[in-house]
Amino acid sequence: xxxxxxxxxxxxxPFLAGFATLPNITGNILGNMWPLLPVxxxxxxxxxxxxIDLSQGxxxxxxxxxxxxxxxxxxxxxxxxxxVLWDWLLTPGxxxxxxxxxxxxxxxxxMLLVGGLIGAINGxxxxxxxxxxFMVTLVTGTFLASIAIWMTRSYNxxxxxxxxxxxxxxxxxxxxxxxxxxxxxxxLVHILLSRTVDGRWLYATGTxxxxxRVSGVPTRRAVLLAFTIxxxxxxxxxxxxxxxxxxxxxxxxxxxxxxxxxxxxVIGGTSLFGGSGKVxxxxxxxxxxxxxxxxxxxxxxxxxxxxxxxxxxxxxxIVLEVLRTRFQMTTTKTATL
Length: 337
Description:
Layout: H1 2-12, H2 22-48, H3 56-71, H4 77-80, H5 103-127, H6 133-152, H7 162-169, E1 171-172, E2 175-176, H8 177-195, H9 197-207, H10 209-214, H11 219-245, H12 257-267, H13 279-298, H14 303-336
Antiparallel strand pairs: 1-2
Helix pairs in contact: 1-13, 2-8, 2-11, 2-12, 2-13, 3-5, 3-6, 3-11, 5-6, 5-11, 7-11, 8-9, 8-11, 9-11, 12-13, 12-14, 13-14
């Protein structure tokens, strides 16, 4: 994917005005990578255990509302007076942490905690109750998206602290804070997958759950861990997106967002059939997907064409993945015989 991304960039640079300029590379291509990368890394971990998490987009919107409600410093009564949160959590003067020096760290901690708890509930439902991951996360996502809209009556929650907004928009010397957060998340998950026993358990569970269980691998714990990580990573993306947009959006992560996440994950090389995936692959997948979206935008194409192109690429990648897996299975059987 890295070579493909470089070839794509070199091919379009001479013909697409503004594509190879430094402001476009740093502000658009790389700038759009960082909020997407953590959630793609979470999806990578889930796919490694042969699962899928369709609730990530809803977790982003729900935690965005939770964090913004805690630290906002001003609200319009005409918008929120009929909200279930009014008078006990939300007031005209803002949330319970309004104008507090601890507003941003406490709100961020709450967002990560809520994301992790939702992921853990998904993981428990799948590992203990043996429910299909697709159905569990789809229902969870639908429920959370509805709750977020119900709590806010579809209004955005603004007036967030400046130090929180800085996480998504400011830089440390010349390095964006969003980049630091995204790469720190990538490094932590990379260490987990490549340097710990839990990481080996994740790969073993995705490769062959029955064989892994017989070998003594706690497969239920591995599935629970994978979905918990996915929930936390979605909350990290929520922090970056909320800070970048300077408001809590109940619809954040809705629409075609999950298509982008799954497409970037699969395009990066993570297998849909479990047991295969790396953080570096996720980074390359997000880079290519961000570059693709940026180039389509510079071409002046409509959003409908965006979705058609991205969906087509995802379909092609899935077909190639299925063919590759079948070829490997056939080769293995032939070698065994």
